[in-house]
Amino acid sequence: MTTRKQTEVWLLGHSVPTITGAKLPSCGDVLRRFFYAHKEEKKTVQQSAAEAAKEVLDFWTRARIPTIAETSVRRKITGLFDEWKILSKSKNNSGVTPAEKQKTFQESLPDLLDICPLRRPHSDDHS
Known about the structure:
With 127 residues, the protein is mainly α. It has five helices and two strands.
């Protein structure tokens, strides 16, 4: 039997089996979904990123917003995981720099996971 404390992910809170809500998912939403697949379902990092990417893409598709390719979304998710992993290794270090990096990371969690393709200016656009 596992307790709520055991299922909690450092800096993120509890993992979730699905991304819910009426708005586009944030970085935190995506990471919590990623960690559910990775920790609870014992999937690899790549499998977990693929599951989270499919759910994120579903939200953006329902909103009829163009997106980048699924492989690029998976790369963004694994990048967030790598950033979290680096921070978690320094979580017991005292000092200003690790604390600042953790704070910056936590502040970025509510931000939208932007998977919109780059917009290129039109050649006739002179603004």
